[in-house]
Amino acid sequence: MVQHHPSDDTLVEYAAGNIKCHLALCISVHLQYCSQCRTQIQKLSTLGGALLDTLPNESLDDAIFERILERVDLVHPEPEVERVGNPLHSWLPDGLVDLTWRKQWFKLYEYVLEVPKQGRWRLALQKIAAGGIAPVHGHYGREITVVLQGGFSDEMGVYDVGDFIIRDGTHNHRPRALENEDCICLTYMEAPVRLTGPVGRWLERFRDMFLNQEDLASQST
Ligand SMILES: [Zn+2]
Predict the structure, then answer these.
(1) Is there a domain that residue 182 lies in?
(2) Rounded distance from Cα 202 to ligand 1 centre (Å)
(3) What is the pLDDT of residue 209?
(4) Are residues 216 and 107 in the same domain?
(5) Distance from the CA of 73 to the center of ligand 1, in angstroms?
(6) How many folded domains does the chain comprise?
(7) Which pLDDT belongs to residue 173?
(8) Is 49 inside any structural domain?
(9) CATH number at residue 136
(10) How many angstroms does the Cα of residue 6 sit away from the middle of ligand 1?
(11) What parts of the chain have a pLDDT lower than 50?
(12) CB-based contact 172:181 (threshold 8 Å)
């Protein structure tokens, strides 16, 4: 059962079309699993931009958000909830079967969906084999995760299929797959992860050296 959702503010921005494309993709995937958020989105879409334009120009706190939804309920008390088409179809026409995974860590694998020619973001599937543990890490930017298969836990909770999780630079965590099934997640990273355990810090030093060499090479060309 889905228990972790985008924030109300994020859903409002998504409904208004103000979300960057890869975060919007992650929300769209979450909506595949979450009737609660689909209903919220449909209410907000029904309301449209006209009501938002009439609200004060301030951040949406819980009270304002509730006011929006109450007014939508007056217009459409029973919104029709529909599932949208699979937003990952263009990357994964056959779903999650027969993917060629690249090993990253002992039981951690990656399947890259999209990386930029310039920039450091990354859209990928991450797989932790059943019972496996990813290295403890933090983030240089936000990391958005949607669970597609199985489940995992970390220091902050337990996550099941469909759950939507955002971590930022203030979080260090060590995801562990549940014991009975491989865990596969859609992950959008705004910047590379930061390995923070003893072994991770040692590896980071080599990565920094490698990146510095790349910088020197690019400066000399
Ligand atoms: Zn939801």
Answers:
(1) yes
(2) 38
(3) 47
(4) yes
(5) 19
(6) 2
(7) 82
(8) yes
(9) 2.60.120.10
(10) 6
(11) 77-81, 207-221
(12) no
